[in-house]
Design goal:
alpha/beta, Rossmann fold, 5 helices, 7 strands, 30% helix, globular
Amino acid sequence: MGLVMCAVDCSEAGATVMDAAKATGEPVLLVHVSNSLLGTEVPAFVEDAGASERHIEHGPTGPGLLRAAERHDAAMIVLGTRGRLWPSVARWVTRRAPCPVLIVGPRADPTATPVPRPAFDRKLLRDSKVPVLIAPR
């Protein structure tokens, strides 16, 4: 497949998203988009302990993720969602990504086989026990 770009934030859930990216068996690039110039600890970076390549973008999260995906020629983007009401970075990225997007909901087992879906569905993602794979239109 190619490089899997994994979006990680400052929450503990980022480690679960990272596990889903690594479960693909492909090379993983951890990407964090910072909205601040101040230093921030990213739990997934700490847990990964330097095993994966890392990249930090600055600015709004959605556009930053797409810039990083383009810059690194990502074959897939993996990111999490809380499945709450809008706004949703996952939904925004899914609608604009040039490659498939694997979304890991709050109840998903990151090592489970993903189910393909044609579009972002907040309720499905909130309750799904498996990651959801959405291909670009």
